[in-house]
């Protein structure tokens, strides 16, 4: 193919996907895409309409009517800015309510079909680090580099706890956070359509006890092995 390389990073919540993806993209001069932000955007739109999340017909209509725009600046390593029908929802999609309901929306095949098509269009020319749950298995099964990033539920809960404090929020206790994370893992891993799973040819990176810099270096090394010295 003539497209530039793609790095696919999949894994459960709190494994470090967003943080690491941004840094890797910055270092390699690639774009990054947080596909979870797209599922969160549809979830926010559905919640605002007050719809029953399980009503697939209505949810699909909302997904079709939602224009999601994603902007990133890998040079500045900023978080991705997200617009929904022109409105900035960058902060709104991180609310506990969206987080609690996103897996139910992401389990719906029609929603996935709509968003995967957009993700494939964004990555059509390559040159992107894309993170989510099914990038290496479904969105870009031919990605040059595939990483399955993980960490224990306890470690991931600790990270979320620290993130919430750093954002000036009052976190729930650690046991509750760990339970919420495990419940989302369970829903994402057991759904019928494109569940969270390690692609056969993905490299497993367990980030327990690793620094962000160590994880970034591991991924860049893999990229150099696979792409720059074929
Ligand atoms: O940032 P965090 O790890 O909490 O989650 P996220 O990446 O924002 O993803 C939110 C949710 O979207 C996940 O729990 C999945 O249910 C869904 N998702 C998905 O199904 N497929 C993707 N490629 C990305 C996210
Ligand atoms: O996107 P995902 O939900 O997989 O994780 P994230 O939103 O990037 O959050 C990971 C959190 O763990 C951030 O606060 C990072 O600073 C921290 N962290 C990490 O990402 N990687 C490590 N090896 C250690 C800590």
From TrEMBL:
Q: What compartments host this protein?
A: Cytoplasm
What's this protein's function?
A: Catalyzes the condensation of pantoate with beta-alanine in an ATP-dependent reaction via a pantoyl-adenylate intermediate. Catalyzes the transfer of a phosphate group from ATP to either CMP or dCMP to form CDP or dCDP and ADP, respectively.
Q: Which domain of life is it from?
A: Bacteria
User: Transmembrane region positions?
Assistant: none
- Where is the segment annotated Cytidylate kinase? 1-230
Native organism is Pseudanabaena cinerea FACHB-1277
Cytidylate kinase domain mapped to chain residues? 7-224
Q: Which family does it belong to?
A: Belongs to the cytidylate kinase family. Type 1 subfamily. Belongs to the pantothenate synthetase family.
What gene name is listed for this protein? panC/cmk
**Record's protein name:** Bifunctional pantoate ligase/cytidylate kinase
């Amino acid at each position: 193919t003539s497209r530039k390389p793609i790095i696919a990073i999949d894994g459960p919540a709190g494994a470090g996907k967003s943080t690491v993806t941004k840094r890797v993209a910055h270092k390699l001069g690639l774009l990054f895409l947080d596909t979870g932000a797209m599922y969160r955007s549809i979830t926010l739109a559905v919640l605002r309409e007050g719809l029953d999340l399980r009503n697939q017909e209505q949810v699909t209509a909302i997904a079709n009517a939602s224009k999601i725009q994603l902007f990133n600046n890998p040079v500045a390593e900023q978080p991705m800015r997200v617009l929904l029908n022109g409105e900035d929802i960058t902060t709104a999609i991180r609310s506990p309510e969206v987080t609690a309901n996103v897996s139910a929306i992401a389990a719906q095949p029609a929603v996935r079909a709509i968003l995967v098509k957009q993700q494939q269009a964004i990555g059509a020319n390559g040159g992107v680090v894309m993170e989510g749950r099914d990038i290496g298995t479904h969105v870009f099964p031919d990605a040059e580099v595939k990483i399955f990033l993980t960490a224990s539920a306890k470690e991931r809960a600790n990270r979320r706890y620290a993130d919430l404090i750093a954002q000036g929020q009052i976190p729930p206790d650690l046991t509750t956070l760990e339970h919420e994370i495990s419940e989302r893992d369970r829903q994402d891993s057991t759904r019928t359509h494109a569940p969270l799973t390690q692609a056969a040819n993905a490299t497993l990176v367990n980030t327990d006890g690793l620094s962000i810099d160590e994880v970034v270096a591991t991924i860049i090394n893999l990229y150099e092995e696979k792409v720059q010295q074929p």
